[in-house]
Amino acid sequence: MSFDKNGFARLLKTAKGNRSINKYAGDSGVTSAHISRLLREKIDTPPNPDTIKKLAEAAGNNVTYEELMVAAGHIVPPSEPPDSNENIDLVDLIKSNSIILTIYGRPLTGEQKDGLIKYIESGRKNTELKGNHGNDSFAAHDEEEEVLVLKPDLAALVKASQKVNEMLQKFLEEKQKAGSKN
């Protein structure tokens, strides 16, 4: 993954639209000098995800956060949707580093990734995250009511991975239904 300065500048120009750089800077909370340097391709390193989020939230012309993140080299562009018979293994996806996992726009650390993988591979069937066990952790209960303590960021990832799996399953089912209609 590399920073596509030209592509990022084109997207940023589209996102700015007819506004002046100063107006876009005011709308986004990013300095006009920084926006100007990005538009003129004078910066060799990509803006961080927090800056891109600000730019995307104020973007016009349907420019998305994901498009800006791809041009910045922070995430891999989405590929073709998986075949309806293809399974996507979440652990393999995490290990492959083909996507950048984030919590609140900040990429996961290696320790967080390892913790998530360890949790997934543990085979525990987590039904729901229940209660606060201290200021820095949450507890998950498996089928045998054994308590697994998770830090808040890992607890959020577990919930997110469950949602991702549900979304992928729904997508594959809908694609299969659409394919059978043809």
Characteristic key phrases:
single chain; 182 residues; mainly alpha; 434 Repressor (Amino-terminal Domain); 2 domains; 3-stranded antiparallel beta sheet; two-stranded antiparallel sheet; 5 strands; 52% helix
Can you give a write-up of this model?
- There is one protein chain.
- The protein is mainly alpha-helical.
- The chain folds into two domains: 5-72, Orthogonal Bundle (434 Repressor (Amino-terminal Domain)), CATH 1.10.260.40; 90-181, no CATH class.
- The chain has helices at 5-16, 21-28, 32-39, 49-57, 65-72, 90-96, 110-121, 152-181, and strands at 102-103, 106-107, 129-132, 138-141, 147-150.
- The protein has a three-stranded antiparallel sheet with strand order 3-4-5. Strands 1-2 form a two-stranded antiparallel sheet.
- α1 (5-16) packs antiparallel against α5 (65-72).
- It is globular, with a radius of gyration of 20 Å.
- Mean pLDDT is 74; it is low at 125-150.
Our Rg estimate from Cα atoms comes to 20 Å
- End-to-end distance, in Å? 37 Å
Which sequence of SSEs, written as H and E, runs from N to C? HHHHHHEEHEEEH
Number of strand elements: 5
Helix proportion of residues, in percent?
A: 40-55%
Q: How do the strands line up in the largest sheet? A: 3-4-5
Number of helices: 8
The total domain count is 2
Largest sheet, in brief, is:
3 strands, antiparallel
Q: Residue-averaged pLDDT, rounded?
A: 74
DSSP strand content: 5-15%
Give the structural class. mainly alpha
Runs in which pLDDT lies below 50 for 5 or more consecutive residues are: 125-150
**What would you call the shape?**
globular
